[in-house]
Amino acid sequence: MTSTSKPLNVLFLCTHNSARSILAEALLNGMAGDRFRGFSAGSSPRENQQPNPLALEALQRVGISTEGLRSKNWDEFAKPDAPNMDLIITVCDNAAGEMCPVWPGHPATAHWGYPDPSEVDSSLEEKQAAFRKTLHAIRQRVELFINLPAAAIDKLTIQQSARDLAKR
């Protein structure tokens, strides 16, 4: 891809779209320049769901913008006027096993599983540490992904490339 190419749209999915998928969206957008564009959504966000404040705090601590982040239902991305996705990555095991909508353009898919940092039920410091650990793990994979050579992210190989990164 060149800098004048259309960016690849990547949708990160989780159940509630409050932590892992939000982290992945923000990291991709903060790290990828104009080569990729990240989005996130959930299969079943709770009513009035908001991004987890500890996820936003973890992003801000590493200098990643949280502007515009919001929890949303994946149905937003199955509508005819939604941006077409090139790759959909589930980041939690629940969303990986759910029946997904039919996505316009039939994007490639992959699963990058991470433990849910919001399930840590202990001190604030331990909760913050769980979010930092998850952020770091996602950041490593995103960094590998955005540094793949152009041949590894063409329409025919993007799915396998993204799936291979789940093994790292």
UniProtKB/TrEMBL annotation:
What biological-process GO terms show up in the record?
A: response to arsenic-containing substance
Q: Would you say which domain of life the source belongs to?
A: Bacteria
Record has Chloroplast as a keyword: no
Residue stretches spanning the membrane: none
* Domain Phosphotyrosine protein phosphatase I, first and last residues per copy: 8-148
- What InterPro entries does this protein's entry cite? Ptyr_pPase, Ptyr_pPase_sf
Report keywords, A-Z: Arsenical resistance
Question: Known PANTHER family for this protein?
Answer: ARSENATE REDUCTASE
User: Mind telling me what this protein is named?
Assistant: Arsenate reductase ArsC
